[in-house]
Structure prediction request, 210 residues.
Amino acid sequence: MTNAPRLLRWLVAGVSIALALSVIYGISLAFSGARTQWFNVGFELLVAGAAVFGVLVARGSFQRGPAMTLAMIALTAVIATGLSLVALQFAARQIVVHPFFLARFAAAAVLAGVGALLVLDRHPRSWKTCLTGAGITAIGVAAGAGALLAAVRVQISSPLLAGLGIVVLLVIGTLVLACVSIGMHLIIRAFELGHLDDAPPAADSAGKPA
Prediction:
């Protein structure tokens, strides 16, 4: 990550340090009840370890794969926090709205976002491809949501109109699936373009002519 803008490096370092400091609160929850929740302590130690890797990434200790490292740090933070709250007997509906989980999720989103930026900035076509894919996917999702909402709200008494409505929904559903498939393919392709810089030059891989 040494070639990344200084602002991004400071952002990763700051979020990682905040993540590490939040472990203090997380571990305090383990001792807040009648019994010590050692599973909670273990999950928080995983988050602390992930935060250390985040600081190392910001310092440029990982010359290859910093984006993937940030993604793994983000994933570890979210999963470990969720399991930590499960160990404290929180229900699933309580976990997703718990301030501690939301704060960790926001930190993970920042780290994952920086990782995505690092990959997309490697190739000039990545951003255009990614935004095109995101736009097509958004159109498909919006069309599907609109069709479902209309189907739920509209009351059709005629069997003929009901049959016609089903046909229309099938056509719209096919178009929605096509848009989502194309959009996701373009998004994946955008990130694949970002990895082209990691590939060896063609001349080197082909070898010298005889």
About this structure: The chain has two domains: 6-120, 126-198. Residues 126-198 form one domain. Confidence is low (pLDDT under 50) at residues 198-210. The chain has eight helices and no strands.
